[in-house]
Give the backbone structure.
Amino acid sequence: MNLLGKDKVSIAPDVLYIYSSDMTENEPSAPDVVVLPESLQEVVEIVKIANEFKIPLIPFATGNNVGGLTIPERGGIVVDMKRMKKIEVDEEEMYMVVEPGVTFGELKAYLDKNYPSLIYSYPLAPPYTSVLANAILDGLNNLSTRYGAMSEWIQGLEVVLPDGTVAKIGGKAVSASWFSRAPLPDLCGLFISWQGTTGIVTKGALMLIPSLPFKKRFLILTYTYSSAYNLIMKYSRMRAFDEIAGFSWVAGKMFFLREGKIEKSSDDPEFMLFVEMSGNSEEEIKVKEKLLKGVIKNLKEEVEEPLDVELMVKAFPEYSKFSEFPTTLDFLLDRGGGLTWVGSYGPNKKWIEGAEGGSKILEKYEFPPLLVSRSMKEGHYQVLRFIIPFKRYDVEEKKIVRECLKELAQFLLDKGYVPYKMPSWLAPIVWERADRGYLELLKKMKMAIDPSGIMNPRKLGL
Amino acid sequence: MEVIPHQEAGNLNILSLIIRELFLKKGMHIDVNKNFSVGIKAGKMASTLHFKKGVLEIKNGISNEINCLIEGSLGTFLSFTSKTSLLPFFKGELKIRGNPVTLFHFLKIIRSVLRSK
């Protein structure tokens, strides 16, 4: 308290309670103290004290990771970064430097107002989620079909190591500019997907791209997963589209039905595929639209004609939740406040089996087979994310959710799909299958950087 | 007009749900004093709308009792409902079978639904 002042430190039980859980099935566990630093120097001072007394440190941005990643499993200090909100843009080099407290909603408003010629990539997540947390946790956003997982947008990081050392990583280590991660030995990987177990990221330089003036988004209903896959692969290889992503039929129904049981009707489509395109002129959009529709021509039995999403939005303005990012898919949370998933990245060739098999597992546990998928990095890999909305305070349902998630995770791993943002209960299951050398290296790196094990203990099973 | 699903709403197909939502949001104030049934086929999905004594009943599939059938893609159907232009019929994108008078009753209702806020 002497270090930061009263308004930046809390040990009040009601405050600690808020930080003890999230919307997932993961068990709650309260911190001993919550601190809210406003500057790099304050973060350094907090880390030095924690290091001296071997107190666990849990970096926290907004807590919306859907993996229980900020639940303090061994108590300690939650370092809530919400007050570190600076955004700086280098328009000429097309990057921005953001602090962890910057949310997608704030970033979009800032760019739209000050740099309308540049855009970032947005997730299927509420506007109050952290931009930097999403990037260092390797999330997937609406431009991931072109660029891959969000760590690919990172051009450099500023991190506070567990002993209080501050390091700038990327070209910035030598240059005045955060122009690129290359060409020095790339140490960003020591902080990407490590879930805060190696240090606290205080700044991230993230790529921006030019905003093109024309855009169009289509919805294509497909009747089988194999026809959906056929389209996904064909569209991915055309290199003409910004986003190729979709949902199982469940999301389409949940949008219109906020409560009650939903079932698939015999004539319902299996999968709703969204394809977005952008261009420098209307003519360019027309050409891309022609390409899009051309592929469908030979698949008429299994696929509906592309539907301009604008038409849906016109009839149902709330349908923009599927087209304007960041977005709040609140209709998924309307079913009891709990939400969890097994999200995974994996090989194209196992997508159909993964989608069909994962759906069957959800149905076995009497959950609607809600799947979100996206073609990544121009079709180099795919996403399979099975989502379970559940009654957050129903202990029995939580148990069933855990069993279901475990079976789903095993199944996806069998198909070669690897979970991202994995909760700590899942880590041992994943490591069982890991290459021994990789695991050794992982442990050595962790020991070298955080020998006292104070950084977000138990996460990643480390 | 009251809107009721013929079956559990959770069993309605997406087309039936879209129509249900449209009428629930914008059609509750409309009085329909004629009794008739319209079948709508959008791609593989099909729905029947029974207008009876001021109540709209929606069910999956095409009932035998329909007075007319409108057939096209979901996009053309939505485009038609948002503009209520007859152009898709003339262009052959929407096909109609059965009693044209029923179609005009239905068009009148759709127009009222879309004009309401």
